[in-house]
Design brief:
It is a single chain. With 397 residues, the protein is of the alpha/beta class. It folds into two domains: 3-42 and 296-395, Aspartate Aminotransferase, domain 1 (Alpha-Beta Complex), CATH 3.90.1150; 59-293, Aspartate Aminotransferase, domain 2. The chain has 14 helices and twelve strands. The protein has helices at 12-20, 45-53, 68-81, 101-112, 129-137, 162-167, 186-199, 223-229, 244-247, 262-275, 281-291, 295-316, 337-348, 380-395; strands at residues 32-33, 95-98, 120-125, 141-146, 168-174, 202-206, 238-243, 256-260, 329-330, 350-351, 353-354, 372-375. Helix 2 (45-53) packs antiparallel against helix 11 (281-291), helix 3 (68-81) packs parallel to helix 11 and helix 12 packs parallel to helix 14 (380-395). The longest helix has 22 residues, at 295-316. The model has no long low-confidence stretch (mean pLDDT 95).
Amino acid sequence: MNPSLTSLQPYPFERLRALLAGAQPPASLAPIALYIGEPRHTPPSFVLEALTQSLSTLGSYPLTLGLPEFRQAVAAWLTRRFQLPAKAVNPDSMILPVNGTREALFAATQAITDRSKRPLVVMPNPFYQIYEGAALLAEAEPWFMGNDRDNEFLPDLDGVSPDVWNRCQLLFLCSPGNPTGAVASLDYLKRALELADRYGFVVASDECYSEIYLDESSPPPGLLQAAVAVGHNEFERCLVFHSLSKRSNVPGLRSGFVAGDPAVIKPFLLYRTYHGCAMPGYVQLASIAAWNDEQHVIENRRLYREKFARVVPILREVMDVAAPEASFYLWPRVKDDEQFVRELFEKQNVTVLPGSYIARPGIAGNPGRGRVRISLVANVPECVAAAQRIRDFVANQ
């Protein structure tokens, strides 16, 4: 067996199951699950319709490169969404369909990392655990940047030493951030590209929450925007990862894309061809319908705004909590995150995630310890009911 498998940490939800084992919540209270970032809003009917109408494609093997129509739809969406120059995104050389960002983030790390050079993969902390697992299985060392309140919940790029950057082959960024909801500014992204140019690494920007933001007039910027702003017209050293899971409420569709530097996309396509992970044709055709429509995304954001507007005032009665700039998470501080999560489940039948499960110890300790991640993915009434239960739980502690 691959010896690197032994270095993998248990996944957060596996640890959560162990934490809650044997706990007996009140049978009189319906369970409310706010621990996983799985959207529960109704999928768009026109996407489901496009999916069922495309099932005839089951008779053909899909190409790893994807359908030209899919890549063209994605290129057009990127251009509209991030205000890129016309024809800046070449659909033939800069885009690949992927089966969700999780699969692509993992695979890209395997394709990019040169194991012969003692590589580092630099990533936020807290973080999406696939970054760490992908690095370990690529025989790279994960290096964690703190992203706490002191630096506005953004990874501290300037707190990384030149020695680390010299060994870095891949920098993971996540904006809007999981779990903090912090948004990297255009200047921040330009700084990341400046470091990538100086030290020769690739920036992988996980932008799967980019379409869930609270201010309709201020969408989060993206790495490709920053690349154009600094003259990277071929998106040199840039990869961005997007998905329909959060944007369009279709996590089961497993549909996303990676876009960026053709010099990275080309060998990544070779890797994926051998990996055997082509997106089915019917999924691509349904995805085209989703990328071509914005109205359902606007409605999606409206529901999240309503949830934050109703939930945050309730929780503020008993804890220090604020709505984020983007994403659908709350990241409040508690005394003991594991104890809080287990007792909340036992007394109120609400499940949230200990913050320490999605972070690693650093110089100042585990930045997730003493926090919980609350995912406002349930419908509005359930989120409000959960907030009321959390308020009552905290008030009675």
